[in-house]
Design goal:
By secondary structure, the protein is of the alpha+beta class. The protein has helices at 7-58, 60-65, 101-113, 153-203, 217-266, 272-298, 313-323, 325-331, 350-367, 417-427; strands spanning 82-87, 93-98, 122-126, 129-137, 145-151, 309-312, 334-339, 345-348, 371-378, 382-389, 431-436, 440-447. The mean pLDDT is 82.
């Protein structure tokens, strides 16, 4: 399991690591570049000095006549000058051709100790400083070695000084990283802490929005999203409470009737067959209500049983009218049909079609005054259905919410009928809409199934 760290630690480590990596890279590139440049310039200078010294050794007569003819071949960029010494086969100093005698003795001693090593364009350290040396055979005397050298002590000191300067810069950068990380951490941790407390309160059931303002747009957007979520949860909770109150009331009525008739049978004060019919009727109401609640809870989860099939919606409408004829006749409502002559086929489970159309019809009968009309037609590429009534229509404040789950409009029952109808319509690729047109007017359109165009 990975060890958890604070944002401050992560940011501090990341910033310090990044800064150190950058500075180390700069230092490495600088040193490699400088050393490469020095070596290239000094190598060229050593080669020139060695060649010049060899030529002067060959012209030994001229050398004795003018011992100051040695050409140092100074480098104008690095400021170095070349010198040379002559060594015997054992590395012992034979002659200091040019340069300081103490340096000549130090280089002779070094060479005698490192004769077996490569001594060509090499930078070495002796007591007096650092020197670039190059050895070649003496062109005059066999067995002797002509050692040319260039003093690079000042150049190497400059490089070392630059490296020493980089060290406090790196330390200052690390200190800056610490300060920046503390500042950035406060900028991030304070909003995160506030939002975490808000989320924790939501988890405990507190659904009150909070006024929060942050300097960062992202945190502000997150706070707004959380406040919208709280408002939605609060609204949903209120609707759920209302829904349970409505459902409890609707369940209590048939249960009371069932219990009353059952007690009448037990105590012999009611005719058993008539009481049994009431019990069966009320039980059917309870069963249908439970089925509606279960359907609504499963809607959209792909857990419906049974396969879809081409169903004639005219027949389903007629079946729904037959089932609710008693309610229509008791209120004196006439049901009119506006059906197509040809079958109106929709790919849907017949049970779902009954739920959708039955709930629309039941809603229309609840509010109609004299009549309701059921429409079911084939159009060019669509199936069109509608249910209208001549009642007072839908209240303007209810129109935006009429299909929401657990929303009970004016005169509604338990707030799930129209939600079920909409859910069924959406599962078939359609959508139910409502408007007021001399009463409530519900309509829906569905694309025709392939082969039915």
């Amino acid at each position: 399991m990975n060890k958890k760290r604070h944002i401050k630690t992560h940011m501090l480590v990341s910033l310090i690591g990044l800064m150190c990596a950058v500075l180390l890279t700069v230092a490495l590139v600088f040193n490699l570049s400088v050393y490469g440049y020095i070596r290239s310039r000094v190598s060229l200078q050593l080669s020139t000095v060695s060649q010049s010294a060899s030529e002067e050794r060959k012209d030994s007569e001229r050398l004795h006549k003018d011992s100051k003819r040695f050409d140092e071949h100074p480098d104008r960029i690095t400021g170095t000058r070349g010198s040379a010494i002559l060594l015997d086969s054992n590395g012992i100093l034979v002659s200091n051709l040019h340069g300081d005698d103490s340096v000549a003795n130090e280089l002779s001693e070094w060479f005698s100790n490192h004769m077996s090593e490569k001594t060509e364009n090499r930078i070495i350290s002796v007591g007096s400083g650092k020197y670039a040396v190059s050895a070649a055979n003496d062109p005059v005397q066999d067995g002797q070695t002509l050692l040319t050298y260039v003093d690079v002590t000042s150049i190497m000191a400059f490089v070392r000084q630059v490296n020493f300067v980089l060290l406090p810069i790196m330390l200052a950068a690390i200190l800056l990283c610490v300060l920046l990380s503390r500042r950035f951490t406060r900028m991030f941790s304070a909003p995160v802490h506030s939002l975490s407390e808000f989320a924790e309160d939501i988890g405990k059931g507190s659904l009150e929005p909070r006024e929060m303002s942050f300097p960062d747009v992202e945190f502000d957007a997150l706070a707004d999203s959380m406040n919208r979520m709280v408002s939605d949860l609060k609204d949903s909770k209120q609707k759920q409470e209302v829904f349970f109150q409505n459902v409890s009331h609707e369940l209590r009525t048939p249960l009371t009737s069932i219990r009353g008739n059952a007690e009448g049978i037990v105590y012999g004060i009611m005719e058993p067959q008539q009481a049994a019919k009431v019990i069966l009727t009320e039980s059917d109401k309870l069963g249908n209500m439970v089925e509606d609640i279960l359907y609504l809870s499963r809607a959209g989860k792909g857990s419906q049983d049974g396969a879809s099939e081409l169903t004639d919606l005219r027949e389903v409408f007629s079946l729904c009218v037959s089932e609710q004829r008693t309610q229509a006749e008791s209120k004196g409502i006439t049901v009119n049909f506006d059906f197509d002559d040809k079958p109106v086929l929709l790919n849907i489970r017949e049970q779902d079609a009954q739920r959708m159309l039955g709930n629309l019809l039941s809603n229309a009968l609840r509010y109609a005054e004299n009549k309701t009309t059921l429409g079911c037609r084939n159009e060019e590429n669509e199936i069109y259905i509608y249910v209208s009534d001549d009642g007072p229509g839908v209240a303007e404040e209810d129109l935006p919410h009429i299909f929401e789950r657990m929303y009970k409009g004016r005169g509604g029952v338990h707030g799930i009928g129209l939600a079920i109808a909409q859910s069924v319509a959406e599962s078939c690729g359609g959508k139910i809409t409502v408007k007021n047109d001399n009463g409530a007017f519900f309509e829906a359109r569905f694309r025709k199934s392939e082969g039915m165009q």
